[in-house]
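Question:
When you can, review this sequence-structure pair and walk me through the tokens.
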Amino acid sequence: KNIFLKDLTIAFASGDVEFILDKVVDDIRWNRVGERLLLGKEDFAEALEQLKADPVVELAIHHAAAHGKAGAVNGEAKLKSGKRRAFCDVYEFGSAKGNSVKEITSYVIEVE
């Protein structure tokens, strides 16, 4: 599950929308704290496409941990625009196997 979370985080950073969409359930919920809650694959896919406007050029994953039906990844990303963001994504898996994602809560902070 830890490797799955790292692979998913790398896919987010590299804009691999197809890989990500293949790993989430149809009624995915993405709570980007401080922004609107996204419900369903269609909204989720649109949001993923919007992330490509300022792509990640450098990614550092500090920790990835999973237990049971939940997991989390935190790290930092540098964007093409020069912005740096610290993030923590908390995942709820679709099953105990941890091969699909049912819900994501993302905490993102701009850093200097």
